[in-house]
Structure formats: structure tokens, C-alpha cells
Amino acid sequence: MRASRVEHDKEIHISGAEGIYKFDELERFLKKFFKRATEHPNGFPDKIFFTLEKIKEQIQFIKALPIKTVFCETPEKAKEIINEHLTKLGISEKAITTGWNVIKGQKMRGAALIDCLTGVRIEPNKERGVRVSRIHMDKKRKIQVLRKIKNLTSEPQRVIEAVTVASKVASCSEVVAEICVSDNLNYTTGYIASKEFGYLRITNIKKHGEAIGGRAFFVKTPLKIDKLIKFLEKTPVIVI
Ligand code: PML
């Protein structure tokens, strides 16, 4: 589901959701997504798109990354901690700078793919980026995550979705790490994720009201880029 509104000739994203469901669950979840789109604190939408696709491929089951929250008092401190972690993973200074530039540019809905050594962006479509899709978190894991973060976020659903994305991304052998900053003006917790460190929530990654945000995946090259993008965008994955 994708809900949006047009303001000053610009399409503003209001809310989105996706999941993998059995046929007999569809009606219930469509209603739930409709409610989410029309009762969202970001306002009432002009347009809601629902896309339903039959899954024909084999569904893969992937372990959820472990979650930890790192409390930072300022964006400067957050940046320092993030850069330290990324450097420990062998990501070069150039690549880290490209990652921050992507996030400050705030132009793409999808993620940038950055060569972790040269810092060059290698995704074929730089306007669109790579959109991680066909993902779902298993109900039991969802309950466990909700329990873990209940006093740490005002938007638990946002965290569930982010952990689901990050777990799919980190499962790829080509991906060294991910960095994500929400493009929502008032959501100031972001994350870095990797197989080594898990999902590290970073508080105060940006200032309140700051119009930045985005996602970048640091990858090892050479790699079969079409295969990686196909997995991220098309392979159905349930995070357990
Ligand atoms: C978190 O609170 O764990 C961070 C979630 C970042 C979500 C990015 C987004 O807005 O989609």
C-alpha cells in the first residue's frame, strides 16, 4: 500500500506498508492497510495504491538481526559512532562520505549501492535507487521485537518495517553494511545494520525538522549487481 498527497505540485509520501499473506487473510489486511492510510498522523491522502501480486517463487526464511539501541545526545556524536562502526567493517572514508551525501541529498525513495572501497555509487538507476520489497516479518518475531522496543519508540511499526528491510539486506553476502536515516521530519532515530553488529538503532541521528533522509548499502565488489538487485526487489522473504 502506498498513500500520498499532492502539496504545491509535489507528491508527498504519507504512509506505506507491505506483507506476504495467505489468500484468505487478504481482505483483513487490505482493511488494516486502508485504515492505516486514512488515519495516519501525516494527514489524509489524495491517492492510495494497493498492489496485490501472487507469489510464484519459493519464499526464503531469514533470521532477524538482533536489535540494540545506541543512545546519542547529538547528531555529531551519532555520526562519530556510526563512522567508527563502518570503519571497523572495512568501509573506506570515501565510501562513508558518499553514504552521508546520499542521506543529505534526500532525493531517492530507494537505496544507493556504494562500493565499500572506492565510494562510487553503482546502482544502475540513481534517481530511483534500489527498493527492497516482498518482505514480511513473522508474527512471533514481531511480538518479540515490539516487546523489546516498546519504551524506546513512538512508532513501533516503523521499527518493525526497518528491521525487516535490514535483515533481508544484511543476509546478502555482497552487503557489508547499511545506513538509514528516516526522511520523516520528526523521526530522529536511524540505524546502521550489518551481519557483524546486527541492527543498531542510533538516536538523534538528525535534528528535529531536518529535511534529510535515505538509505545506502555498502557493497563488496566485484559483484553480480543484477542478481543482487533482483534478490532485494523481487525474492519473497519472511524474516523469522
Ligand atoms: C528505528 O527506530 O529503529 C529506526 C527506524 C528508521 C526507519 C526509517 C524509515 O523512516 O523508514
Task: Report what the structure shows.
The protein is an alpha/beta fold and 240 residues long. The chain folds into two domains: 2-54, no CATH class; 61-239, no CATH class. It is 32% helix and 24% strand. It has six helices and twelve strands. Helix 4 (139-149) crosses helix 5 (156-170). The chain is globular, with a radius of gyration of 17 Å. The chain starts with a strand and ends with a strand. It binds pimelic acid. Pimelic acid binds next to helix 5 and strand 9. Pathway: Metabolic intermediate metabolism; pimeloyl-CoA biosynthesis; pimeloyl-CoA from pimelate: step 1/1.
Termini gap: 22 Å
Radius of gyration: 17 Å
Main sheet: strand order: 5-10-9-8-11-6
Unreliable stretches (pLDDT < 50, length at least 5) are none
The structural class is: alpha/beta
Helical coverage, percent range: 25-40%
N to C succession of SSEs = EEHEEEHHEEHHEEEEHE
Bound small molecules, by name, code or SMILES, are: pimelic acid
Categorize the overall geometry. globular
Count of DSSP-assigned helices: 6
- Average pLDDT level: 95
Number of domains: 2
Number of DSSP-assigned strands: 12
**How is the biggest beta sheet arranged?**
6 strands, mixed
Strand content: 15-25%
Pfam families: BioW
Pathway: Metabolic intermediate metabolism; pimeloyl-CoA biosynthesis; pimeloyl-CoA from pimelate: step 1/1
Cofactor: Mg(2+)
Subunit structure: Homodimer.
Keywords:
240 residues; alpha/beta; 2 domains; six-stranded mixed beta sheet; three-stranded antiparallel beta sheet; 6 helices; 12 strands; binds pimelic acid
